[in-house]
Design brief:
By secondary structure, the chain is mainly alpha-helical. Helices cover about 65% and strands about 0% of the residues. It has one domain. α6 packs antiparallel against α7. It starts with 5 loop residues before the first helix and ends with a helix.
Length: about 260
């Protein structure tokens, strides 16, 4: 992919822009370096019936938001699979703890950044307008999910889990109350903590369902968000298309995950 100027980038037709985005996402360099690459692309969403009905300016906004979301997923994938040098066993303990703490912190913050893109993108697709969150992005997103006949209410469980993740994991990291400082001193920062990867793993598996809804298809299946029984109950209600029951359950789900 050749280097271009800002003016050249802005002057690209949207189809050309989308092609350039996908070229960046699919670079064979990552595979040659031994990194995982997520086989996701902007074009698959850009060509959907939902996006095609938008005006050209908004289509371009959706393309950029899609690219931002997929990039954020790829950032997390690369950081989780990165290979770092190893010190001699007798020298590595302190460095190992700091390294793992840094990677865990990045995964936590990056996951929340990815969810921000996810909220913006799905809201844009479902409403045809920009997502302007004000004080509480997740609260606004929740209220939008409750709108009648909103197919993106499918993502309620994911949004609720993101809120829980935000409070338990992300907030301590960005408000100087991180638990990782003590874990470094306890020499436990390198212990496996699957909770750190919970949100990003949920989001990495949502792209196909975003495509399904944007292409006006019924999503086939769901991504488990931690509690299989809760997941089954929610998706059963969602599939019933009983919008009063859906709205009531959305409130209940968010209350449960707030606690």
């Amino acid at each position: 992919m050749d280097k271009i100027t800002t003016e050249e980038l802005d002057n690209l037709e949207t189809e050309e822009l989308v092609s350039r985005m996908d070229e960046a996402l699919s670079s064979p360099y990552w595979s040659r370096m031994g990194n995982k690459i997520l086989k996701l692309n902007v074009c698959s969403l850009y060509e959907s019936a939902t996006v095609k009905k938008f005006d050209p300016v908004f289509q371009r906004k959706v393309a950029y938001k899609s690219f931002g979301f997929l990039l954020q997923l790829q950032y997390s994938e690369l950081s989780s699979s990165a290979n770092f040098f190893r010190l001699p066993e007798k020298d590595e303990n302190g460095a190992k703890q700091i390294y793992w703490a840094a990677r865990n912190q990045w995964t936590i913050v990056s996951s929340r950044m990815a969810f921000e893109y996810f909220m913006h993108l799905t809201y844009m697709l479902g409403s045809g307008s920009d997502f302007k969150s004000g004080k509480s992005a997740i609260k606004k997103f929740k209220n939008w999910l409750k709108e009648r006949e909103n197919p993106y209410s499918y993502f309620t469980i994911s949004a609720a889990r993101a809120m829980q993740f935000d409070r338990s994991k992300r907030s301590p990291e960005v408000h100087a109350t991180t638990k990782l400082v003590r874990r470094i001193l306890l020499m436990t920062a390198s212990d496996i903590d699957n909770d750190v990867f919970q949100l990003i793993n949920i989001l990495k598996n949502q792209w196909q369902f975003i495509l399904d809804i944007a292409h006006q298809r019924e999503p086939n299946g769901w991504v488990s968000c931690g509690n299989v029984d809760d997941d089954k109950e929610w998706y059963g209600i969602w599939e019933s298309k009983d919008y009063d029951a859906i709205s009531k359950k959305i409130d209940e789900v968010f209350v449960n995950y707030e606690n």
